[in-house]
């Protein structure tokens, strides 16, 4: 699968207004989304000789060996494991939605959306040590979200990259990821609102870090932090507007072209509000060195 | 989860397989009333191997040849709700393995709950439930099995395989794909038999042999236990802290082992009646019955539904343009038979 993307930076004072503009454009209420994102890194056994052995004998290498060597020197990647969480799971009863945002932003439309949601079942009895948090790590659904480095030398002014998305079993995903060759690195939270505009997914979001502590956990957290205690990666609290289209068959030039045109169309429609543009390719490099 | 056995009869690339002989002997060994054709089944199996292990030993001077690691992906039509991924445990864990960080509140009880013959009255229900996902970790399970079973939704089966071949080349190399395109299912007395020719489709097309799955459908402690745990799960949570459950579970776990042994001998007896030589057997393979025992452990931490969140909630939460999360009612279903299939299909390549 391929993904086509455009990005824009949205300063925090514009956030509220843009939410309303997007709601108007897409004729839908924003869908609030909070996602845990675990970063995994492909690992190779240290000390393994991956380079060529005996350079002068290269000519004698069989085709099979050459192929294996080529594979060994192929790229390795970081990949994300993403799990949706609800506001209620994010630590002790933060009832007031507006307090969750550290920046001076009232976020009223999101509060409205939140109230319209059906109340989530709170399995309090299942919480082991009687904590207030209703978060249950063992029931957390996950999906693997792989993104390749954006394609180089595309003439079009759109970020294009290979992607893969696959649902994974619930609960502790680390043993499986370890066995598959990935080691857990770190995690963060993404908080934002999703709009759907025809075939375009618009995600107005920002990255939140867990409050820094002395000992960074070496595995995914079992308990989450309240949203208001999270620290935005961008200190001013600004948001990223991401417009994306997923194309099943990236080799089909026709569909890729159509998708690009749709994104350019959205760029024109939002021209007066934000400037959507492609991202710097190397800033989206997911290769593991 | 019924108790099964899998047999594989290898054959030469251009010779005919044992399938017709087997069908013939099945027909002649049982009366027509006992012999009921049920339908078709199919299998898809992909074998991957660690890429570094493919280097010839000589090209790697000064390094001990490491044990090969495998990743096997299996899909069975009789377990359509998920695909199976069976992976060799990593020889060395990257960074810190979960067990090292046992400071996490539920990590310690999780290990206790799965070790056979011990485990308190499950102070943390979540700990035992961690194995709903059919993944295993640390503790006793790692000692007895070197491979880790994961079940993934059907849609992920292909995507993950493509991901591994695309993004994981330095450590996973696709070696073989074999399929059973046109298997046949028969009900024979207390057994259900699945037969089929195994065809290799990648890298070259050839015939590998014939595979036979024999499933015991008579009375089984394992099956009734699964039913009992279902009943308990829907029951009250009052007995979570009672000590009675402990003895109950220890007894049952011993029973499970005995059950597997007993059924294995029934299956072997059945197989012996057919008198086919040169078959590779996979019945009591490493790790078998693990999920059933975990299920048993979960009974102690009963009182909570498997679906902690409602499906509706899930739909609301499904994130940005991603696939919706599919809910597998029983992620552990069929893991035993999957292990058996993978045991015989792990061709040395």
Automatic annotation (TrEMBL), chain A:
A biological process (GO) of this protein is:
regulation of transcription by RNA polymerase II
Q: Where in the cell is it found?
A: Nucleus
Q: Give GO cellular component annotations, separated by semicolons.
A: core mediator complex; mediator complex
InterPro entries attached here? Answer: Mediator_Med18
**UniProt keyword terms in alphabetical order:** Activator, Nucleus, Transcription, Transcription regulation
Q: Can you provide one Gene Ontology molecular function annotated for this UniProt record?
A: transcription coregulator activity
Please give the residue ranges the record annotates as the region Disordered. 88-129
Q: What does this protein do?
A: Component of the Mediator complex, a coactivator involved in the regulated transcription of nearly all RNA polymerase II-dependent genes. Mediator functions as a bridge to convey information from gene-specific regulatory proteins to the basal RNA polymerase II transcription machinery. Mediator is recruited to promoters by direct interactions with regulatory proteins and serves as a scaffold for the assembly of a functional preinitiation complex with RNA polymerase II and the general transcription factors.
Give the quaternary structure. Answer: Component of the Mediator complex.
Q: Of which family is this protein a member?
A: Belongs to the Mediator complex subunit 18 family.
Descriptive protein name: Mediator of RNA polymerase II transcription subunit 18
Organism, by scientific name, is Penicillium canariense
UniProtKB/TrEMBL annotation, chain B:
Q: Where in the cell is it found?
A: Nucleus
- One annotated GO biological process: regulation of transcription by RNA polymerase II
Region: Disordered; residue ranges are 87-141
Which key words are in the record?
Activator, Nucleus, Transcription, Transcription regulation
Question: What does this gene product do?
Answer: Component of the Mediator complex, a coactivator involved in the regulated transcription of nearly all RNA polymerase II-dependent genes. Mediator functions as a bridge to convey information from gene-specific regulatory proteins to the basal RNA polymerase II transcription machinery. Mediator is recruited to promoters by direct interactions with regulatory proteins and serves as a scaffold for the assembly of a functional preinitiation complex with RNA polymerase II and the general transcription factors.
Q: Name one GO cellular component term.
A: mediator complex
Assigned protein family: Belongs to the Mediator complex subunit 20 family.
Give the protein name, as stated in the record.
Mediator of RNA polymerase II transcription subunit 20
* Keyword Transport in record: no
Q: Which GO terms describe its molecular function?
A: transcription coregulator activity
One Pfam family here: Med20
Q: Name the residue ranges with Low complexity bias.
A: 98-116, 125-141
InterPro entries for the chain: Mediator_Med20
- Subunit arrangement? Component of the Mediator complex.
Q: Give the organism the record lists.
A: Penicillium canariense
């Amino acid at each position: 699968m391929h993904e086509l993307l455009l990005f824009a930076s949205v300063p925090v004072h514009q956030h509220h207004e843009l939410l309303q503009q997007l709601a108007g454009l897409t004729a839908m209420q924003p869908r609030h989304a909070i996602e845990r994102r675990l970063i995994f890194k492909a690992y190779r056994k240290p000390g393994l000789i991956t380079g060529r052995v005996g350079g002068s004998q290269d000519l004698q290498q069989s085709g099979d060996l050459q192929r294996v060597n080529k594979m060994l020197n192929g790229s390795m990647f970081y990949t994300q494991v993403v799990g949706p969480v609800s506001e209620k799971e994010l630590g002790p009863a933060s009832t007031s939605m507006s307090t969750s945002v550290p920046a001076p932003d009232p976020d009223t439309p999101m509060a409205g959306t939140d109230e319209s949601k059906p109340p989530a079942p709170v399995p309090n009895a299942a919480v082991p040590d009687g904590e207030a948090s209703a978060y249950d790590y063992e029931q957390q659904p996950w999906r693997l979200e792989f993104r390749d480095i954006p394609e180089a030398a595309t003439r079009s002014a759109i970020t294009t990259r290979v992607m893969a998305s696959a649902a994974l079993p619930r609960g502790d995903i680390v043993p499986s990821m370890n066995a598959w060759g990935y080691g857990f690195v770190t995690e963060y939270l993404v908080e934002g609102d999703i709009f759907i505009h025809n075939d375009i997914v618009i995600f107005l979001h920002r990255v939140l870090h867990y409050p820094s502590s002395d000992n960074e956990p070496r595995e995914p957290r079992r308990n989450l932090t309240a949203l208001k205690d999270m620290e935005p990666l961008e200190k001013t609290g600004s948001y990223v507007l991401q417009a994306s289209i997923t194309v099943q068959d990236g080799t089909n030039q026709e569909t890729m072209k159509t998708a690009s045109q749709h994104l350019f169309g959205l760029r024109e429609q939002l021209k007066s509000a934000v400037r959507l543009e492609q991202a710097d390719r190397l800033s989206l490099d997911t290769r593991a060195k | 989860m019924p108790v099964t056995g899998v047999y594989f009869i290898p054959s030469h690339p251009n010779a005919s397989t044992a399938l017709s002989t087997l069908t013939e002997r099945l027909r002649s060994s049982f009366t027509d009333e006992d012999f009921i054709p049920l339908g078709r089944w199919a299998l898809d199996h992909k074998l991957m191997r660690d890429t570094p292990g493919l280097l010839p030993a000589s090209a790697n001077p000064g390094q001990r040849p490491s044990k090969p690691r495998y990743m096997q992906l299996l899909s069975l039509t009789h377990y359509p709700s998920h695909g199976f991924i069976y992976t060799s445990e990593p020889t060395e864990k990257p960074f810190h393995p979960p067990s090292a960080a046992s400071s996490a509140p539920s990590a310690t009880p999780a290990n206790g709950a799965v070790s056979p013959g011990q485990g308190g009255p499950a102070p943390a229900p979540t700990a035992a439930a961690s194995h709903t996902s059919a993944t295993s970790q640390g503790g006793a399970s790692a000692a007895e099995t070197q491979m880790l079973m994961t079940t993934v939704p059907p849609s992920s089966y292909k995507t993950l395989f493509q991901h591994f071949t695309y993004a994981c080349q330095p450590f996973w190399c696709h070696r073989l794909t074999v399929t059973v395109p046109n298997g046949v299912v028969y009900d024979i007395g207390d057994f259900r038999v699945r037969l089929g020719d195994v065809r290799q489709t990648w890298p070259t097309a050839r015939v590998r042999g014939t595979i036979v799955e024999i499933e015991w459908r008579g009375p089984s402690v394992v099956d009734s236990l699964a039913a009992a745990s279902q009943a308990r799960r829907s029951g009250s949570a009052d007995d979570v802290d009672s000590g009675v459950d402990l003895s109950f579970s220890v007894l049952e776990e011993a029973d499970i082992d005995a059950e597997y042994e007993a059924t294995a001998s029934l299956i072997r007896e059945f197989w012996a009646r057919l008198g086919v030589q040169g078959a590779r057997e996979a019945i009591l393979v490493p790790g078998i019955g693990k999920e059933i025992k975990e299920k048993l452990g979960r009974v102690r931490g009963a009182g909570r539904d498997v679906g902690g969140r409602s499906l509706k909630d899930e739909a609301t939460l499904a994130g940005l343009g991603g696939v919706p999360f599919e809910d597998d009612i029983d992620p552990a279903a069929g893991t035993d038979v999957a292990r058996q299939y993978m045991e015989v299909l792990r061709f040395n390549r």
